[in-house]
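pasting for the record
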Amino acid sequence: MTQNGLIPVSRDRHKDRYWQRFTSYNFARDLSECPLVHTEVCQAAATFPILFRKTESGIRPFAVLSLTQGETPFVSTQGRWLASYVPSALRCYPFSAETLIDTTPNSTQQFRLLVDEASGLVTDDVQDEPFFTADGTLAPDLCAVRTFFQNLTAAEAATDQLCGIIDKMDLFTLVRHHDGIDLPPDWLGVDFAQIEALSPPHKLLLMNNNAMGLIHAHQVSLSHCAWLFKAQQKQLHRSPDAESPELNGFLCAMASAQQLEGIHAGY
């Protein structure tokens, strides 16, 4: 078992087990943030504030889902996702993945698929999706999940590189407030005044690597801090047993007009 409670998918453990696709976003209710990759920041910027945080692999962008210790307003009391865009990291629950780095000479990165067995979506029901086929190979639908995470892992590496370029230019700075809204500690933002002071070759480097696109998405997204704060204030006063039509309407109006591609777009 990994430290976060996810279990590596293996024939020994899962050859006679099955899984269900999620039908509720209750698993995301208590999330205050969600990691993003560079290919989705423009879509995410239309809905969420995007800020940066240091991780084990470097600095990475995150969609901010909550500005307080409370639940995110993007998940309804019935488990519906209320925003117009679903971050890629949330699309394949109860699965996740990790890259294992071998430090021995001539080593290669090892990728493995993980599953949250505490999700209630891992079963012994033969009518559900199998982990493996009768001959012991990964079942087709799970192969699609693995491919999704392999692509996501590659996008994460590319995103780390872009953030590394921005970091080397000393453009990241601690952000404690925006538009009068207090932000959670340790968030990083881009110092836009510092960008103006960059030399033309450095600005060109940002442009050529698409790091400037990431910066612009972050800049535009900060306008959502005020309405996310307002949404959470509305949330504090809603009935705990029912959805608030006012809150749902507020979120739908403030979110972009993008069409949701589907709850299981990653599958």
